[in-house]
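Sorry to interrupt, but I need a hand with the structure work. Please put the record directly below this note.
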Amino acid sequence: MFTKHGVFNRRNSHYWSNYNVHPFRERNFQESWQFNAYCAIRNYGVVALEFYQDNLNGERYLNIIRNFEINCLDNLSLADYRNIFYQNDGAPPHNGHLINNHLQNLFYDQWIANNGPHLWTPRSPDLLVLDFFIWRTIKHKVYNTALTTREDCMRRVRTAFQDLDPQSLRRVTHENFLLRCEKCLEVQGHQFEHLLI
């Protein structure tokens, strides 16, 4: 979620420091707005970015998946299509029967969710590239300076996604992910983000 005040899903925004830098955020309550973003990535870059205004529910999420299917999957080769693993997190709208049935028909057993053929790992932002890299990077760029309007914020989000370097994304999704898996095993599944500094 993106808002004028930068208040969003705090699971995707982590700050680590050995000392307190006393950060502060100036806020203006005269006008408020918000929107949500859906992103799909592959190892070569972002393949889908969609904004929606209202709270996410099962019907709205199903429409997002259908748009992704039409705009992204229809153009893939069969070999690329077979290598896709679709991943949902634990959000309730991602795990309804309509969603699960559609994902099963679309990806067979190659999808991850709370009720999917492959279970989503709860409390795992350290291992999910969208959490530990993509959203953190995007939000840092978007909120680097004060926002003025919803359109300004959307423009910044689009620009930040366009600026993602495919080489960096490929490196992060492969090399960095393996390092993170090793650290996760070292600490027996506990928090390890601070050990990567």
Notes: The domain at 2-196 is CATH 3.30.420.10 (Nucleotidyltransferase; domain 5). The first strand starts at residue 2 and ends at 3. Residues 14 and 20 are 14 Å apart (CA to CA).
